[in-house]
Amino acid sequence: MTNPVTDAVAGQLSFFTRRGDDLVPTPLACSMWSEDQLHGVALSGALAWAAERGLAAAGRTDLRPARWAVDLFRPARMVPCTLTAEVEREGRRICLVDVILSQDGERVARGTATFLKPSANTEGEVWAPSERPVPPPADVVPPATEPRPPYVRSSAGWSQDFLEHQNADRKTSWSTAVPVVAGEPVTGFQAAAATADGASMVVNWGSRGVEHINTDITMTLAREPEGVEIGLLATDRVEHDGIAVGTAAMFDRRGPLGTVIVAALANARRTVDLGSVTYTDDGRRETR
Predict the structure, then answer these.
(1) pLDDT tens for residues 57-116?
(2) Fewer C-beta within 10 Å: the chain N or C terminus?
(3) How much is the pLDDT for 15?
(4) Cβ within 8 Å of residue 191, ≥6 positions away
């Protein structure tokens, strides 16, 4: 779960600052699960940042991200993060990069990126769904490049009032990506990878809040987003014996981007009650 509370770091909102080779979390990276826990949006963004650096070190400027998988081994704390990237396989049309995020010498999370070489589309006809997710109307949610609390749609329509959406309805979110590292522009891949963790909120947010915590993220991309605004639409959810699997469609103002799948564990003893908080225009969180 992400905490949209904002924080000014060197004149810019970001999840991390640089300290040598490490990334140091800012308050914006703090989870709503715990005051000493990083949320998955920041974690996935940091891993993607390192994966891109690994690809650049390999000299591959001809590839783009197609798949992103994150395993969250244990809760990450609000302490410096060390990231190491390694190219696992490289070919003419593919490159696989593994990234490990460690804290105090312990492995906390892993990201695996598959980068592929684009080419021309084939000429054969293949099935595709006729209905696609659509972004919120510009007159309701004006286009933006600066971070802001996410908009959500359920039966109540698009709004930033989370209490309106604390229900059992199907949900859609619309987020503006936060820069991962202070002083560095967020890339399309970083924006998508970070936003992908929000699929857990979209598929697991119900009438009593968010009662599940995701253990992983799997994102596929046919293309990178245009800009930093990204939407997620819940498309499927299955739960049995406290294990939930949810799928969301990812899209931007141009159209569909790919999909996100998350697995989650029941966490009812530490429910995040989104209906009990509101956010001001500058991102400060207030309790109702």
Answers:
(1) 999 999 999 999 999 999 999 999 999 999 999 999 999 999 999 999 999 999 999 999
(2) C
(3) 96
(4) 177, 225, 228, 230
Residue 193 has pLDDT above 70, yes or no: yes
Nearest of 143, 147, 169 to residue 156 by alpha carbon: 169
Structure tokens at 199: 């699929």
Give the pLDDT confidence score for residue 205 in this predicted structure. Answer: 96
Domains of the chain, each with CATH number or no CATH:
8-117+138-287 (2.40.160.210)
Please calculate the CA angle 265-245-223 and round it to the nearest 5 degrees. Answer: 125
For residue 123, pLDDT beyond 70: yes
Instruction: Name the residue type at position 34.
Output: S
Reported as a single tens digit per residue, the pLDDT across 241-250 is: 999 999 999 9
- CA gap 95, 115 in Å, rounded: 5
Flag whether pLDDT at 33 surpasses 90. Answer: no
Question: What is the C-alpha separation between 182 and 17, in angstroms, rounded?
Answer: 5
The pTM assigned to this predicted structure is 0.91
